[in-house]
Design goal:
The complex is a heterodimer of chains A (about 180) and B (about 170). Chain A is mainly beta. Chain A has two domains: about 30 residues; about 140 residues, Immunoglobulin-like (Sandwich). Chain A has a seven-stranded antiparallel beta sheet, with no helix packed on it. A three-stranded antiparallel beta sheet of chain A has the order 4-5-10, with no helix packed on it. In chain A, a hairpin with a 4-residue loop joins strand 11 and strand 12. The longest helix of chain A has 25 residues. The longest helix of chain B has 24 residues. In chain B, strand 3 and strand 4 form a beta hairpin. About 15% of the residues of chain B have low confidence. Chain B is elongated and about 115 Å long. The N and C termini of chain B lie far apart (about 120 Å). The chains are: A mainly beta (about 180), B alpha+beta (about 170). The interface between A and B is large, with 61 and 53 residues. Strand 4 of chain A pairs antiparallel with strand 4 of chain B, so a sheet runs across the interface.
């Protein structure tokens, strides 16, 4: 009897492994969320996710977040102070309401936008003032030999159906050369 | 055949069963397979014959056929997808002053007030840049690069108004 227990255990482990593989192939899991759509390009990534697989629609109402032209600029070359901003941030989830949109920089939340009975959120650059102040950093500090520090950012949005959308990107700043 | 061999055969059958289940799990009735959360064409499904039908009882149904003429699949220029803009940089007098990173975008537009009040430079005394009524001339380069490996660059210069900082020392009488 003991001799048969080991193969049965192997069989059960094998089956569990197969089912785990099926689960991860259907939809990647980001933390505890189920990823419905994901795209990657040149180190940037954007995705749409649901709270879990059970309530994951095949066609989500929330779209990818539009966050073009992540800019880092140095107004004064004599100061190690740069500013990060986006041309605009926009996301829509019609007919659901948008609840929040947050901007996280390395990895601190720097902006939090609350929806108010609205099916889309649009934040132009001038709503964020000059942008977010960061250190420019020395030449090559962020990995690019011609630029300074690099900053990873995450922009997340959530709608009233608990669907989420997220952008992950990196922005490089000009170097501070004293 | 001893019990051990039987046990291993059971294990092998279990793994095979699991593989069959997983293979069938992806197959969808609509001819699409869902992988990584994205619907993709199912390579095992062949082209379907055209068919139209009006469903319901009666000899002359009041609903008509759906019209969807001219189903087209067009690739205007083969082997070319949409190219995304990766970066655009602003360089003033040989120093990088702004770096813009594209995010899934096919063009990049930046308005002037995004950099308000602009990039700080030295104005210089009259004639410093070659024009007697103006100050320094600052050269700039704007470069852009896209995913197709192509780049674009603008080279130019801009003259500043002359402005000489004059500091008057106080006369202190002892």
């Amino acid at each position: 009897m003991r001799r048969i227990i080991t193969p049965i255990l192997v069989m059960l482990i094998g089956l569990a492994g197969v089912f785990w593989w099926v689960q991860s192939a259907r939809g990647q899991v980001d933390g505890d969320r189920f990823v419905l759509m994901s795209e990657t390009q040149d180190g940037n990534q954007r995705e749409v996710s649901a709270e879990n697989q059970a309530n994951a629609p095949t066609q989500p109402d929330i779209g990818f977040i539009d966050s073009p032209s992540a800019v880092c600029y140095q107004p004064d070359p004599g100061l190690d102070a740069c500013w990060i901003n986006w041309y605009y941030l926009s996301v829509s989830s019609s007919p659901n309401y948008m609840i929040t949109m947050t901007v996280t920089l390395n990895p601190r939340p720097v902006a939090h936008v609350q929806g108010f009975f609205q099916t889309s959120i649009y934040v132009p650059f001038n709503m964020l003032g000059d942008g977010f102040k960061v250190a420019c950093g020395p030449l090559g500090a962020g990995g690019n030999p011609t630029l300074g520090n690099s900053y990873g950012y995450t922009i997340r949005a959530r709608d009233s159906a608990n669907l989420g959308s997220a952008n992950y990107g990196t922005v490089y700043c000009p170097a501070f050369i004293p | 055949m001893n019990r051990r061999a039987i046990g291993w055969i059971i294990a092998a059958l279990g793994l095979a069963l699991g593989g069959l289940i997983s293979g069938g799990y992806f197959l969808n009735v609509g001819g699409a397979a869902r992988l990584d959360g994205i619907y993709q064409p199912n390579p095992t499904a062949g082209p379907a014959a055209n068919l139209r039908e009006a469903i319901g009882a009666g000899d002359s149904p009041t609903i008509s056929f759906i019209e969807n003429p001219s189903a087209a699949c067009v690739n205007l220029v083969p082997n070319t997808g949409p190219n995304y803009i990766i970066t655009m940089t602003v360089e003033i007098d040989g120093r990088q002053r702004a770096s813009v990173n594209g995010f899934f975008q096919t063009y990049m537009y930046l308005s002037g007030d995004m950099f308000d009040p602009g990039f700080k430079v030295v104005c210089g005394p009259p004639g410093a840049g070659g024009k007697p009524e103006l100050g320094y001339s600052h050269s700039y380069t704007i470069r852009a690069r896209e995913t197709g490996g192509l780049g674009a660059a603008n080279y130019g210069s801009v003259y500043c108004p002359a402005d000489l900082a004059q500091i008057y020392l106080p006369i202190v009488l002892r």
